[in-house]
Amino acid sequence: MSAPAEASTSIIPELGPLLGRLAAPAGSTSGLVPLDDIRLALVTELFQLAGAARAFAAEGDLDSALQSLNRHGWQAAWERAVNSAAARVAVRIEQRFRSASEESRLPRRKLQKVMLTDDERRGIAVRLGSGGGALVEALDRMELLMRRAVRDSAGSSDAGALWKKALTGVARRLESAWFALEDAARAEEAAWQEDVGQVRAWKRPRWPLWIITVAISAALLWAGLVLGGFLTSPDWFRPIANRVWGMG
């Protein structure tokens, strides 16, 4: 749907200020698996969507401009960020398992049993993305208002203003969802720390060594008794005994 270029352009806001700290430069992530590059990739993807929207708006194509910032684009970008963050957290946890196993010399077959399963990896992704519930609700509202706004050829009606307000709400919910994801990532690492500690504290069982020690001691005692003449030498041991006695 075409609309005057000036009116269409005014309906697309700058995303940077709306995203707040989400669009800030990389900062300190002490104690947290590095996620800044994933955050910035998410912001970059959204900026690209906004850039496409402004390009369509400059041509007076309000319909395509609003569609460029639709629900699917935002949600797909968010889900990619969540999956990337979850994969990185999983790698960090498994690295800690491997490091702990090297310290304790845990056998490889035992290490494989404590490494993350596919279900556990999916669980991490679910927990990291759990802060996006409010974002989904905001996206639903924005999508509804977008459909109303495209029916306004000038882009200047109340529907257009409401869509811009809804878009602002989506950006703020995304910012909150991201920082909830970072908190969840910290909690996830902490939750696995006990398991990592158990791997680090693993000790090789000593009962096989004790069995071998007892068996060798018993064998030496029996041999000593035989060679000392306290026990009768069996046929299979007599050549050994004769050689020892002959040396004497």
Describe the structure.
- This protein has twelve helices and no strands.
- With 248 residues, the chain is mainly α.
- It has helices spanning 5-10, 15-19, 36-58, 62-68, 71-104, 108-114, 118-128, 133-149, 158-191, 193-200, 207-227, 238-247.
- The chain folds into two domains: 5-200; 207-247, no CATH class.
- Mean pLDDT is 84; it is low at 1-7.
What order do the helices and strands come in, and which of them pair?
Blueprint: H1 5-10, H2 15-19, H3 36-58, H4 62-68, H5 71-104, H6 108-114, H7 118-128, H8 133-149, H9 158-191, H10 193-200, H11 207-227, H12 238-247
Helix pairs in contact: 3-4, 3-5, 5-7, 5-9, 5-10, 8-9
| SSE string | HHHHHHHHHHHH
Count of helical regions: 12
Low-confidence stretches: 1-7
* Strand content bin: under 5%
Describe the largest sheet: none
Shape by Cα distribution: rod-shaped
Q: How many E strands? A: 0
- The tally of domains stands at 2
Quaternary organization: single chain
Mean of all residue-level pLDDT scores? 84
The helical percent reads over 70%
- Secondary-structure class: mainly alpha
Radius of gyration: 34 Å
How far is the first residue's CA from the last residue's CA? Answer: 113 Å
